[in-house]
Amino acid sequence: MSELKNDLLLRALNGEELSRPPVWMMRQAGRYLPEYLKLRAKYDFFTRVETPELACEITLQPINIIGPDAAIIFSDILVIPQALGLQVLLDEGKGPLLPKTVNTLQDVENLQVEGAAERLHYVCKAISLAKKELNGRVPLIGFAGAPFTILCYMVEGKGSKTFDKAKSFCFTQSPLAHRLLQKITDATIEYLKAQVKAGVDCIQVFDSWSGMLSSDDFAIYALPYLKQIADALSPLCPVILFPKGSWYALKALSQTSASAIGVDWTCSASFAREQTSNKITLQGNFDSSKLLMPTAHIKREVKKMIGEFGTQRYIANLGHGILPTVPVDHAKAFVEAVQNYPN
Amino acid sequence: MSELKNDLLLRALNGEELSRPPVWMMRQAGRYLPEYLKLRAKYDFFTRVETPELACEITLQPINIIGPDAAIIFSDILVIPQALGLQVLLDEGKGPLLPKTVNTLQDVENLQVEGAAERLHYVCKAISLAKKELNGRVPLIGFAGAPFTILCYMVEGKGSKTFDKAKSFCFTQSPLAHRLLQKITDATIEYLKAQVKAGVDCIQVFDSWSGMLSSDDFAIYALPYLKQIADALSPLCPVILFPKGSWYALKALSQTSASAIGVDWTCSASFAREQTSNKITLQGNFDSSKLLMPTAHIKREVKKMIGEFGTQRYIANLGHGILPTVPVDHAKAFVEAVQNYPN
C-alpha cells in the first residue's frame, strides 16, 4: 500500500488533533459532473458498476475535478441483493426495481450467502485499480448498505417514502426478518472484508432507511446488525456508520466499535455532540439543497457548520447525497470552504 | 351547536383530567374502508372533496364503522393552492400534480388571497352537514396544511422524497419564499376561521414536510407561520400542530399558543414529554405499519404506547396516516384498545 500524502480523513477517524477537518461529499462521483454524464450516456448503470475500469474512472473523477480529501469507490448498495441471488433492475431517474421480492421462509432460504462476496469480485478489482490510480493522494472509502436498508429493498422491491411493506414484514414475521437480516449481515461482512483486502482505507455503512423505524424498533432491527458489522470490520479499518434519520440512536451508536457516525442535516451539531458526549468522530451534515445557493453563501454556511461541530473529531460532508442539479463550481466552493477554514 | 355527548378530545386538548385518552386516526376516512372505495369507484377525488354531501358521508364513515372519539372533515390540504389560483391534478395512486408551479415574483403576485376562503365554501358546507349528521356524537376536527408544506407542493409541483427544489427556492430566494409563505398563511387563517364558523370544534395543521428542514431552517421557514396560525385560531378553538419529522422543534412548539402537538412514530414519548416539559397535550404516535400485526399484538402495543405517554394530556393516534392495506378489524382493534384502556 502506498503511503498516503493526505491522511486527514484517517486521522479524524482516529481522533487525532487536526488544524482543519477533512471533507468529502456523499455521491461525489455522480450526476452533477459532466464527465460522469458522458459515461452514463454510453454505459448503463450496472455496466458502470461492474466494469472495474469504469468504476475506477468514475471514482477518480471528483478527486481530479473537485479535490476532496477522500475518494469513495463507485458502486451501489444493491450489489448485495444481486450477489445473494435477486435480480435488481435500475431505471435511471425512476430508481431500483427488484422483480422478485423476499416474502417467505423459502425466499430467505434461497438466498446464497456462500460465495456472495466472491461474486462481487468486480468491486474489489475496481478498488485495486482506484488505489493504484489514486497513488496515495487521498484515502479510498469502501461501503455497503446496512442490513435493514437492504432488507427494505429486498422486501419492498423498490424505493418507497415509508417502506411500510418492509416494516410490516419485520413486525408480522419477526423471526424471519431476523433470519434475513442475519444473512444480509453475514454476506456484507465478508464483502466488506474483501474490500479492505483489496485496499480501502476505511468503510462507510449506509443505513439510508433506518430513520423509518421508531427508536424501539431501530434497537431491534437495525442496531444489532450495525454492531456486528462494526465489530467485524473495526479491527481491520475504521468504520463510519450513517443511519440517516435515526437521530434517536446517536448515543447507542457512539457506544459501538465504530470510529464515526454520520449525521443528516436535520440533526444539529449541538444535539449530536451532546448525545455522543463528544466521544466519537461525527460526519456531516450540510443540507445538500444549500449547494444551490450562491458560492459566497455556501462559504458562509460551511464556516457556520464547522463552527458548530468544531474542527476536532469531525469530517465535513453533506447531510445526504449531492443533488444532480448542483453546479460543479458550487461543489468545489463547498470543498474549498472546508479546506481553507478558518479563512 | 349541539351539546357533545363525547367531548374527550376537547377535554384532552384543554388539559382536563381524564380516565382514558381520546383516540382518532389520521386518514381514518380513507382507502382501508370498503365503503370509501365504493365512493372512490364512482367519483374522482376532487368530486368527493368538493361535493359537500359526499365529503360529509366520507367523514361519517369511520365514525359509524370504527367508532373513534373524533371525526375529521374529509378534504385535502391542496385545496389552498387551488383557492389561490393554481391548478391541482390528482392521479390516484400517483399523488398530486401542479402543472404550473410557483417560481418567480410574478407567480407569487398572481396568487389571489382575497376571496380564497370564500372559494372553499364547499368545505364549510360539508362541515355544516357533518356537524348535523354527527349530532353531537363526537367532535369534528377541521384542518389545513401548514404554510411550508403548501409551499413545498406549490414550488415542487408534485410529491418528492426530499423537496429539494422547494427548499432551494427558500434558500436562494428567501424574501420571495417569505412573501409566498405569508400569502399562504393569510389565506389559511381565513380558511380555518371559516371552518370554525361552520362548526368545527378544533383544528389540526399538518406540516407534513417540515421534517425536511434542519432545525435552524424550521425556525425560519416553518415556525413563524405555524405561530401566526396558532395565535389567530387559538382564541376560537383548540389548535393541534403536527410537524411531521420535526422532533427538534417540540420545545419551541410547546411554547406557542397551540393546545397540542402531534408527534410521529420516530419520536419516543419520553423524548416528547421531556422536550415539552409535560406542559402541553401530545398526540400520536402508533407506527401505522404496525396495524398490519395481529390484533392481539396491536392491543399489546397500544397499551405500551399509552403507558409511555400516560393517560393525561394525551390523544392516542397514529404517527402518520393509516395505510390502505390495513384490515378494518385491525383499525377497530386499535381504537378499542385505547377505549378499553387499561383493560
**Radius of gyration from the alpha-carbon trace of chain A, in angstroms:** 19 Å
- Helices and strands of chain A, in order, run as HHHHEHEEHHHEHHHEHHEHEHEHEH
Major sheet: arrangement of strands of chain A:
1-4-5-6-7-8-9
Average predicted confidence as pLDDT of chain A: 97
Number of self-contained structural domains of chain A:
1
Structural class of chain A: alpha/beta
Q: What is the name of the CATH architecture of chain A?
A: Alpha-Beta Barrel
Description of the molecule:
The structure is a homodimer of 343-residue chains. Chain A has a single domain, classed as TIM Barrel (Alpha-Beta Barrel), CATH 3.20.20.210. The mean pLDDT of chain A is 97. In chain A, helix 15 links the parallel strand 7 and strand 8. In chain A, helix 4 runs parallel beside helix 8. In chain A, the strands form 2 sheets. A 7-stranded parallel sheet of chain A has the order 1-4-5-6-7-8-9. The first copy, chain A, contains 17 helices and 9 strands. Chain A is α/β, with parallel strands linked by helices and 343 residues long. At the A-B interface, helix 10 and helix 12 of A face helix 10 and helix 12 of B.
Task: Offer a quick outline of the entry.
The structure is a homodimer of 343-residue chains. The first copy, chain A, is of the alpha/beta class and 343 residues long. Helices cover 48% and strands 11% of the residues of chain A.
Topology summary:
The structure is a homodimer of 343-residue chains.
Chain A: H1 8-13, H2 34-42, H3 45-50, H4 52-65, E1 71-72, H5 79-84, E2 89-91, E3 95-97, H6 105-110, H7 116-119, H8 121-134, E4 140-145, H9 147-156, H10 164-172, H11 174-198, E5 202-207, H12 215-221, H13 223-233, E6 239-243, H14 250-254, E7 260-262, H15 269-275, E8 281-286, H16 295-309, E9 314-318, H17 328-339
Parallel strand pairs in A: 1-4, 4-5, 5-6, 6-7, 7-8, 8-9
Antiparallel strand pairs in A: 2-3
